[in-house]
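**Sequence, structure tokens**
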Amino acid sequence: MRRRTQAIALSIALLLTSGGMTGTSEATDKVKRTAECQGDWLPATPTSPDIMDGRLSFLDLPAVEVGKNVNWRTDPYRNRSWSMVFHSLRWMGRLVADYENTGERSYLARATEIAQDWVKDNPLRGGGSPYAWQEHPIALRAPALVCLSRHVGGSWLTGSLAEHAKMLSNPALYEKGHNHGIDQDIALLGIGCRYNRDEWSGLAIRRLTETVRIDVDSQGALREQAPRYAIYVYDRLKVAMSNIEACGRKVPASIEERWKSLEGFISHSTQPNGFMVPIGDGGADVRPVGYEHPKKTVKVFGNGYVYGRTAWDKPESAFYSIRFGPGAKYHGHEDHLGVTYYAQGRDVLVDVGFHSYENTGYRRWTMSPEAHNVPIVAGARFRPGTSTALTGSSVGEDRQSFRLTDKAYGVPRTRSVLVNHGRDVMAVLDTVPKGSKVRTVWHLAADLSKVSSGGGRVVVKDKSGWKAALVQVAMPSCTPVTSKVVRGASDPYQGWVSPAYLKKQASPAVVSAASTGSLLTVVVPGTGEPSVSCSGGKVSVETSDGAVSLRVSGSKLS
């Protein structure tokens, strides 16, 4: 009873501060455009005509007929992301924005019907859709309702916004240090500024300041372990800062500083072909645009990323990534010690990528070590969430090397990575203690097909005839290590990549036999006939452009 009394009181207060509007606005030749209803938060699909026809298309999935009387328990694809977008009501906000742009009153009338029906069918006390009052739909829906409030009033709307503000203010529901928390702060700020409730807008700014400090480190690296989310956070912080200023408040300097620092992280995470490297929950089809790149071509981010390239703004340049750092969380996968390699204008070693958030066997596999280019201790139990240390590095203009170690399998596993530029070679040395055996999985780009395998060598080519070779030998004996090439297997999953959301494509994966001691893998782009020879600790690699020399000493590669 007390909760209901408080909600009624808040609703009355909001009605008073909003001027007690009821119904829809009077017809005018020119509708005033508002900051709350205009902006890139609005979806491109469905369009207003689609919504008026009762057809909703989200996430590039086929349109769903919802009709005029919407069933808010609709869940056609059993897809949490679809339901989240459905209950965000941003698509309703599309109608209001287009009403402002065109003066088409039927758009505003339908938006009002949709929102009012949602409020009626999804009471906070329960009985509606299970997705209705989850923390992220709340955060995304509130701005759409604030937008509507610029043209429509009534206790049903102000009462719902009061309930949204109450839920957004609840510390138990707040996602601190996460992109959802940023959305929650934007939503609470919007309601607070709309109705002059300083306790709400002030709380939002204070929380946002702390969340940004946690989510974006001092180097600009996003701690959510999926670089593509850095783009989302960058865009949302831009919205937040604009809204803070529009509310007559000052943007905290620390927010702006961390926001600017994200640009460097995004740029370093982008391959020479313009697509972001698909680490963690990041699709291979994400293409950042408009971010200035720094001068450095090699960057180590302490929260778990090594990025290197030969040059900026050249699609044919080489690029690599290496993962380490804190254990997997948020949008991270079990990809520590994993590498990717792009050379001569092509993907060579790739990450399997992101498929969806659905709890399927395939999704679970994409998050596992087997779906990444990592060393695996044969017969040992994997320990999820293990952190990995970067224990050494050497950065030269044409050659870089890094050494990493952890105990993800209960015993130390050490990986040394060396990348040679010009005469393109990536060499990886994986070492485990005496009594253990190590094997590796290498995921190759989907457009590469096997030419041959045997004698410790796998040769692949693309449709143009360009070739690359992967050679594996046990060290220090330099004995060839056998491997098999798997493509499109499902029991267990192996040999797949996800080129886009809800897409998967068969792709070659090289799975080696287990080896005692150390296993050296040499990747040579541009040739199908590299020569790898050993003399003591020296390894010679013959590329199409000439010889490259490496030195192996214990677990070190230089």
Remarks:
- Residues 228-246 form the longest helix (19 residues).
- Residues 161 and 266 are 35 Å apart (CA to CA).
